[in-house]
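Worked example 2:
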Amino acid sequence: MPKRIYDIVVIGGGPGGYVAAIRAAQLGLDVALVEKEHLGGVCLNWGCIPTKSLLRNAEVVSLLGRGKEFGFTLSGFQADFGAAVDRSRKVSERLVTGVGVLMRENGVDVVAGTGRLRSANEVEVALNEGGTQTLPARHVILATGSRARSIPGIAPDGRRILTSREAIVLRELPVSVVVVGAGPIGMEFAHIWQAYGARVTVVEMLPRALPLEDEEVSAVVERAFKRRKVKLLTSARVQEIEPTGDGVRVRVSDGQGEQSLEAERVLVAIGVAPNSEGLGLEEVGVALDRGYVEIDEFMRTGVPGIYAVGDLTGKLALAHVASAQGIIAAEAIAGVGTRPLDYEALPRCTYCQPQVASFGLTEAQALERGYKARVGQFFFLANGKALGLGEREGFVKIVTDETSGEILGAHLVGPEVTELLPELVLARTWELTPEEIARSVHAHPTLSEALMEAAHGVFGHAIHA
């Protein structure tokens, strides 16, 4: 019998790969997906999902610690960090099982093993059960994701020097921890551990925490963390991490000189590196830029029939971006209408307390690009729902172009702002203006009223400001 030729073979079962496989199957294509470990990839197993479960636990613990404010007292309260980790694992397992069900329901063949390109139209799989299998394919989608980036000369050992992958399954709460990197991953873990009582120091090479966010947003988050006794060292570089008898010593330098930080554990959270090695990319002519696969707006590489999505492409290392790319790749292969991504308009979220959500240009970036920027800003301090929740920190900021009325960016910090952002992303995607947001009646009392007020604020008409 002739070998089965798949329309698409996807290498990697994370949010980019499995979503691409499902969308392709919906479009009537014959699909196989190769995954060496667990469906769902880093996001479902060691990233987005388990961290959000732990963050929910941290939120509850923090709220219980504010009993006096809400008029209740607790005696004998104990927070079991190991139980929180166990709960997070169950949440992940449930979703991973669900992805497996989706593969079966959509008729996607899942091959357990490590895939690499044998040619532009063949994927060779080193099977987990032993041996190899060759999968002929008319098209290949590369979705192998990324891994934690290391500090040069410092190798995580998984015990005292951790990456997020080890940290997410650590059942014993560290007494003290140094977090290297004040991006979303570092700040989320810092918040979780501090909420459970760990002594936390965050070291960031750039001048502020969450350095890619609006400066005012960073300032709100920094103040909140400092009030909770998290030590923040910015403009500081880690020179060395060395094990000690019962922990680690971190040597840090900044403008004032050097200091040594003693802790039980260190988390290195300085970004990600692409998993592009061992895929046979060079042999078939797939172009790389610093290890990332180069793609066009439809996820095509320079080799006909080979596509790439997700962290491997170096666009935005976010699960929802990978999924959106996966849908576009599948639709492009199927020859149906699709819509390229505007990466600048895609949402970015950090789930510490207070939460942070944003997309697009900051006011400073808009001015640098020559826009005549107008800003509407509304503080949660004047929002009735936020006050009722006891969460009055933060604001909504909308950046617009005064000439065209176009929304250039939005920057939110405060309660549940990751759930508020989609309205503004929708407005930007479909070219709505602040006027249309302002004239859309928002229910009262809700946090979403802050969006309406900020939109009114663009024209200087915010009612409660």
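The CA atoms of residues 13 and 39 lie 5 Å apart. The domain at 161-270 is CATH 3.50.50.60 (FAD/NAD(P)-binding domain).
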